[in-house]
């Protein structure tokens, strides 16, 4: 099982959290201080708080199967249309 961030499925939680937290831009507060997420050996931190993302689980094999199913469905439709067109031309 992997973890999903956006439309991508990552194999490990660490990879998924790296992508997820890297997308968060830094912020300059009203006091002029820079607030940003930092990566340490303990994980991602905001100030002194360690962060853990709640990411949905995914399976890269299922995504591959879904893509394959859609691709072969499109090919089947194209072949059927080509066959109907060929029969139509022969009957003229």
Please provide a written account of the structure:
This protein is of the alpha+beta class and 92 residues long. The chain has two domains: 1-58, no CATH class; 60-92. 46% of the residues lie in helices and 24% in strands. It is built from two helices and eight strands. Strands 2-1-8 form a three-stranded antiparallel sheet. It is elongated. The mean pLDDT is 92.
Fold topology:
Elements lengths: L1 E4 L2 E3 L2 H10 L4 E2 L5 E2 L2 E3 L2 E4 L2 E2 L6 E2 L1 H32 L1
Antiparallel strand pairs: 1-2, 1-8, 3-4, 5-6, 6-7
Instruction: Provide the residue-averaged pLDDT.
Output: 92
Overall morphology: elongated
Number of strands: 8
User: How much helicity do the residues have?
Assistant: 40-55%
User: End-to-end distance, in Å?
Assistant: 55 Å
* Proportion of beta-strand residues: 15-25%
Report low-confidence residues grouped into runs of 5 or more. Answer: none
Q: Count the DSSP helices.
A: 2
């Amino acid at each position: 099982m992997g973890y999903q961030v956006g439309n991508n499925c990552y194999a490990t939680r660490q990879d998924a959290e790296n992508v997820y937290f890297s997308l968060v831009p830094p912020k300059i507060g009203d006091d002029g201080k820079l607030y940003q997420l930092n990566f340490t050996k303990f994980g991602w931190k905001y100030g002194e708080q360690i962060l853990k993302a709640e990411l949905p689980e995914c399976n890269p094999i299922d995504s591959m199967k879904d893509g394959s199913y859609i691709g072969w469905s499109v090919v089947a439709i194209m072949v059927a249309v080509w066959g109907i067109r060929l029969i139509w031309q022969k009957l003229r």
